[in-house]
Amino acid sequence: MYGCSMQSSWKLTEENGANMLNIHMQVGGLLIVLVVLYLSFRAGFVQIKSKRLYFRALLATGICLLFDILSIVGIVFEGENGFSPVVVRLLCKLYLASLVAESYFGFLYAADEFVRAHRYKGMRVAYQLLVVAGVAGVFFLPVSYRAEGLVVYSTGPSVIYAYLYGLFYVLSILVTGVIFADKTSKERRQAILLWMLLWMAAATIQFFHREWLLVGFSAALGMMVLYAELENPREGIDRRTGLYNGSVLMELMNESYANDRKFAGMNVIIRIRDRELDHEKETELVIHAANFLKQTIKKYKNAQVFRYVGMELLLTFEHAGEMFETYDRFRKEYREEIRISKSGEVIPVQFLFYLMPDSTVAQSAEEVFWFHHYFSTELEEQGCVVMDRKSMERLRGYSKTKQMISRAMDERRLEVFFQPIYAPKEKRFASAEALVRIRAEDGSIVPPGKFIPVAEETGLIVSMGEEIFRQVCEFICAHNMKELGLHYIEVNLSVAQCEQEDLAERFLRIIDLYQVDPRMINLEITETASLHAKKTLMKNMEDLMESGVHFSLDDFGTGRSNLDYFVDMPVRIIKFDYSFTQSYFQNEKARYVMESVVHMMKKMQLEIVSEGVETEEQLAAMCSLGVDYIQGYYFSKPLPMGEFVDFIEEKNRPAA
Length: 656
Ligand code: C2E
Ligand code: CA
Ligand code: CA
Fold this sequence. Notes:
CATH topology of the largest domain: TIM Barrel
Radius of gyration: 40 Å
Largest sheet: 8 strands, mixed, barrel
Shape: elongated
Structural class: alpha/beta
Number of domains: 3
Number of helices: 23
CATH architecture of the largest domain: Alpha-Beta Barrel
Number of strands: 22
Strand order of the largest sheet: 13-14-16-17-18-19-20-21
Bound molecules: ligand C2E, calcium ion
CATH class of the largest domain: Alpha Beta
Helix content: 40-55%
Distance between the termini: 108 Å
CATH superfamily of the largest domain: EAL domain
């Protein structure tokens, strides 16, 4: 093969002149190539670069062997009744040219093993130009051939030229192998070295025994070694389903992203409804669905089904249209019931889909799977989630916010603002609600609407809530509340906090640490909290109330609350939500509702805070309704601690 022996010799001519074709070894080599080709084809084609390069090298090896055989046939049967010398010379040149090409493709494959990065792009162009020059040279330079007894060979400048090329590529493979040794695994290095050694040994033997035509054969053998060691697709194949597995998928996706190759993707997640299945039956379901999908995508070039994990299939397509077509067909034609062939059992199933029409919305395979992770709740709810630019932006915004929160917490940039709450009967500010803010690095204020939802989703809200509570206790500890005229401070509790088994314990410890009178604390809960983990919440409430902490019910009048709810919750205060307060002024019906609600709450000895009072008119209305406390922009927006203290000191100062 590479830089083939100085004489490639072919013919065994008996002394008596009878011709014998010495092509057994080459035919054997060709058979090996054909078998490996068959094996690679059977597994299906994946667009992975190393596989593509291997496939080309393999094809080149086969073609080279074919021309090797043809040129021997040509030389042997040259004559008046056989091939003309022009044809024979052409066959010899075709063989030599294919030898140059084979060396080149072998090099590309090997060099790729060594240099996975893009670093050799420029080098590759040089090598491409070189191979063109090589092939051109072979055709340009003269060639002759000779039959000498048992041995037949072609000779002349063209042959030497081709062999020098081969030698050059062999050396290139060895040199890149040494230079980039740390870029590749030991197995890969060893397999490629074995391939080269096979060739060199064959070339040496053939040099001394010209009638042993080993070189072409050992090139084929080398390709088989590479196949077994490096390119065996079975390794990436899920044994039970015969589908490519997750690791091949990852390789394919990583490469597609590295080379800016756009693709479309679709996940099909199989869910078994209302029962447990053993592993064996689960696999049968996967095979069933996979077979349908395989059949459906057969007509698309480069479409592929993967078994990503367990009951999850993933399909890749070249075009979005193919993906949507497959999706539609699957939904229309594939029933949500699978009959298992062995037992005849019918299993009710459900399918969930992620659709990715355009891979470029993500920047990496990692981001794609991160997307899947992030949207898993939505997937369960909707059955199908499309990964487009908008949803991707949401995901990126989410992670940016998550980072922002974590950093703010690490760098102690969480701040508590206080919004004064007015008590009309006392004609002064009797309390305040603590509201969290993040102080951005540039000193600006990030409002909770921007980060609370993410903090809740990530669970960061728990430690954030605790820090807010600590700051509130610190504030109470540092100020004379009585002198300020404040009876208590309201602190918001999120659902996740209410679900915390040791919430009461942790909060009481903080109260203790700052020597705060627990009656100074009023915790705001929402109805959602009790729907989630009522038992834990009730236990926490009991423990906290025992030491004097009070509770209010937040967001009354929104979808999140209903009338009968507060009846069995031990809260002292009900907070009318901003929207509820506003609705009072919008229509008569709402006014009647509010009037009777207030009446009922009064009877139950509940106190009422009205949030969102912005105008004098609203204030007057709420006061005449008999609301106990007013909170709203009419009096003040939430204020930083210092400003809040100034505000209270000024407003609550007894009139001179
Ligand atoms: P919320 O508990 O309903 O808090 C009242 C919100 O209404 C506050 O918004 C407040 O600034 C705003 N507000 C008060 N009066 C008026 C008014 O007259 N007009 C208008 N338009 N708005 C008014 P903020 O501070 O942006 O907080 C938004 C939400 O974020 C809070 O709603 C609460 O659900 C959450 N939040 C804030 N701080 C915390 C916290 O420390 N922990 C938890 N878990 N959630 C918090
Ligand atoms: Ca609140
Ligand atoms: Ca509220």
